[in-house]
Amino acid sequence: MKSDHAELQELLVNANEVVRRRAPEVPTELMEPETKDIQEHKQWEILPNGVFAATGTTSPRLAPGAYTIGITDTGRVLFMSKKILTDQLIDLGNSNSLHVIDGIRLFWRKKEQYRKRGILYKRGCLMWGPAGSGKTATLSLLVADLIKMGGIVLLVQKPAMATKALPVLRKIEPDRPLIVILEDVEEMIAQHGEHELLALLDGEHQTDNVVNLATTNYPEQLGARIINRPSRFDEVVKIGMPSPQMRKQYLEHALKDEKVKFPVDMWVEDTEGMSIAHLKELVVAVTCLDQAYENVIARLKTMKTAPKSSMYSEAGVGFGGTKSNQAGAVGRGSGKSYN
Hints:
339 residues, Rossmann fold, globular, alpha/beta
């Protein structure tokens, strides 16, 4: 049986043939002061030619949370607060998603080790696998972790804009823990080009104290310059579909006190190869909308598209780490968490 790394390399070579953890409490020593303790104040903005302008109310730091990036016609960088919408997150046990989550949590504890060796304090992880396997929900758990630590999350859609914004952020807040989210990175490359993404990941304006997290359903579309360069993505981790044990755990959680009313073991067997999105629709359709189970399961099976390559045959870790045949911590929904 091929290793996941070998499978990924084969996809890169044959790209034309392919169609397209419960989180523990964040340690006290990692938590930052609440935003309400920040004193707001007035400041002078320095303009060219010795001109000063009175600004509005200012703050020395951004409130912990998620932000998108904008740039005005005059070139001013804006950080726009973004509310993250997600279904309830569920820990489905030991998995590759938890490998990612545990690894990033460990990274945030190792700053001094990086400094001692003169290594830029940054980490990159690319998660790949079929839609609905739990990549976005894994991101959500890591985002919740960082916000609780007092950190900042940037939801990036245009790499060039992020490349311009990050130095601005670092001039004001050089030591703020930061996660940069790049969802559906293959679409980002298609729209903006590989060069813009590479400039963000390892261009001349390198960002310190940061984790870059990306997802893709189609790793074969990224190319070796993205997949095979640890300085860009240090780990490439495959997130597979939920195992029978995980499907049972999810269904029992979603059915709650009503689980004794339904043949959960049969549901688990009938949903082989299905994603969390399929499981959610099964529960909603049968228990909320009173649809017949037989009709719902038949409909869902027609919506289960078999991949045309072997890329999703089993789950595992790409570059190093533990190997598992299970998917990860997931949300009760499969839609994008960052809309």
